[in-house]
Amino acid sequence: MVAPFLAAALTLQTAAPLPPPRFESGRAWEHLRQLVAIGPRPSGSPAIEQTRKYIKEQLAAMGLTALEQAWEDETPIEKVHMVNLSVIIPGARKERIVFAGHYDTKLFRQFRFVGASDGASSAAFLLELARILKARKSPLTIELLFLDGEEARLPEWQGTDNTYGSRHYVEMAKRDGSLAAIKALILVDMIGDRDLDVRRDENSTLWLTDAIWAAAKHQDLDDSFLAESTRIEDDHLPFLAAGVPSVDIIDLDYDAWHTAKDNLDAVSARSLQIVGDVIVGALPAIEARLIKHSQITLVNKTTVRRKAPRKDYTIRLAHHRHHRRGLRRKADVVMMGH
Ligand SMILES: [Zn+2]
Predict the structure, then answer these.
(1) CA-to-CA distance for 247 and 187, rounded, in angstroms?
(2) Domains (ranges, CATH) in the chain?
(3) More exposed terminus of the chain, fewer Cβ within 10 Å: N or C?
(4) CA 66 to centroid of ligand 1, rounded, Å
(5) What global pTM score does this model have?
(6) Per-residue pLDDT averaged across 178-185, rounded?
């Protein structure tokens, strides 16, 4: 008697994406605390190896397996061993949405930099996201991507001395043909700031940004997701350059940025909760749009034309002191990603 109804319910489930279970910032906060407790975690260090161990163990406890993508990269200072961690949560379709964030911290020799917002918040966030998305039937496959080497090895952010992990990932995905299945990238970076101010990023894809800001407004969280915009260079640029719709959720308006003060005092579980609620809230609309888009593509290939990938994503850099000062006044300030 029950079986036909069950079958119908399962069919409906793939048609209308269900919201996942609630994002619990208490769990994300505990991950953040554990990561900060490891200490400075620059690429190539024993501490980042320990960080990977923590991430992999936490994922394993959820029944998820992290795959390692390891390589040696040339930085302006030395050759560095880097490792991206990737987790796949299969959905009804093979096409996937990638949630990414970096887990390395910037190398500072003059002071102890533990990167509570810059490095720990993104990794902690992805771990909690993994837990709730694992518990959900998703219409598209989900990939959680923990990126290494986002930070510049030299003090200043310039040239190719940054975003090592995302550039390597995209390069490999192009080579093995897996890039085509990536339908959207949602990047989080520096989302722990106690005083959360996320601005729309002009480098990001407009419809994805709109979907996320609409979810924020819907939940009365628009005092943290501001209508103002800025321009960010971050791990989303290699994906954008490869034609993947991408959005960067980042709060770079952070006084503790790249200082010893980026510690537990500067961040809050509440901020992680806000970003969790917004992203999880936006997910069904993003999935619906991607599914609609892919069906139109199947029916008539000429209806949907992909934007040509940007040939050159190098953007003029402003010195960070300038852009930080200008940030509150100007809407079109060019910012460095971080
Ligand atoms: Zn940084």
Answers:
(1) 6
(2) 20-335 (3.40.630.10)
(3) N
(4) 24
(5) 0.85
(6) 97
